[in-house]
Design brief:
Length: 280
């Protein structure tokens, strides 16, 4: 399992680099200083109703809303990048409504520009969810998560390599905190506040694959100092197809692996068609 995970991560990084090099063949734009602000939201809704339908079926509906925010201050001597992701949605088949998406993620990275191949940075990240989560494989359902239960916070310092706006990688020493309350046994081995020290690597990739197709990828790796052979993986991939000015088709694939929570990798896939709107 460990060998397979390492191969997947290595192949993924090589694919990132290869696509970035190909994109570098394009003409570079002049660097623009100041604030770059972007806040985009999308809402999708699906509903099915059956009445005396001979082929069978069950009433259902689902909805999801996402807000992606980016605030970047770029100056000759530094860059301060702030990113936020808010996501929430529900789905219902019959009479049982369940969560389909629930995420709060905030990240801030300050890079001091020395005009070297790599530049020093410090960063902070926080991640949790809005509402309660349940295990539906048992009856009755059992609560297994809530707001800041768990909550994840990571601070790191190191060096960042950003050859273009398409791809950037940073690696450094990191401290990761897991905050829990009722579910410490599931997420933090019984501790309500768990601290881990180790190394973190984060690779961001933004590639325009076609006139109306955009690919965003974020690969986060973390390993503690006493278990460098075990790597926590959080790989988020987002494909966005712009169908019209206000309608997008979005496919999201997320791979997650943390041996402290489960010995098996976790996958989540979402396909949605919805209304996209620019907030800022």
């Amino acid at each position: 399992m460990k060998t397979l995970m390492k191969m997947v991560v290595l192949i993924s990084i090589c694919g990132f680099i290869r696509m970035a090099i190909a994109q570098e063949a394009e003409k570079k734009e002049e660097i623009k200083y100041g604030w770059l602000k972007s806040t985009v939201g999308n809402v999708s809704f699906t509903q099915n109703t059956f009445d005396n339908w001979s082929k069978g079926g069950e009433d259902s509906w689902s909805w999801q809303s996402d807000i992606l925010a980016k605030f970047i201050k770029k100056e000759p001597k530094y860059e301060w990048a702030n990113n936020g992701k808010l996501s929430y949605g529900k789905t219902q088949v019959g009479h049982d409504a369940r969560k389909a998406a629930d995420e709060i993620k905030l990240e801030s990275v300050y890079t001091y520009v020395l005009n070297w191949p790599v530049n020093p940075f410090v960063s902070g990240m926080g991640q949790t969810q809005f509402t309660k989560g349940y295990n539906y494989t048992v009856d009755p359902k059992v609560e297994i998560s809530n707001f800041l239960d768990p909550g994840y916070f990571t601070e790191s310092i190191g060096f960042k390599y950003a050859p273009s706006d398409i791809i950037q990688t940073r690696i450094g020493a990191a401290s990761k905190q897991t905050v829990t309350d009722k579910f410490a046994d599931i997420y933090a081995k019984g501790d309500k506040f768990r601290v881990e020290y180790g190394a973190e690597s984060v690779t961001d990739l933004v590639v325009k694959l076609g006139q109306n197709l955009l690919y965003n990828s974020k690969l986060e790796l973390f390993s503690t100092v006493n278990r460098f052979d075990e790597v926590d993986v959080n790989w988020d991939n987002l494909f966005t197809v712009k169908a019209t000015k206000y309608i997008n088709v979005i496919w999201n694939l997320r791979l997650y692996y943390d041996k402290d929570i489960s010995s098996q990798r976790q996958l989540k896939e979402t396909l949605a068609v919805g209304l996209t709107y620019t907030i800022l």
